[in-house]
Design goal:
about 60% helix; mainly alpha; about 0% strand; 434 Repressor (Amino-terminal Domain); 5 helices
Length: about 90
Amino acid sequence: MTREGWHFEPDWISPPGDTIADLLDERGWSQAEFAVRTGYTTKHVNLLVRGKASISEDTALRLERVLGSTAGFWLQRDAQYREQLAPR
C-alpha cells in the first residue's frame, strides 16, 4: 500500500562507503584485497569506506568494474551524500 504524496526523508546520512563495505563483506574481501582489485592503496580504500574521499569519475569506473554496479550509481550515491553534508 502506498500513500499518495508521501516522500521518504531520512534523518540520517550514509556515505557510499557503507555500500562498499557491505559489498566487501558479502564477497568476503578485506579492504586490502579490494585495494589490489581496484589499484588503489589500502589507505585510499579506507578513506572511501569512511566517506572521507569523494568518488571521482575514475573511482566510479573502478567501482563499476570491481563491484558490478554502474559508474552512474556510484557518482549519484556520492553526490547525494555530499549534498546531505552541506550546511543548510
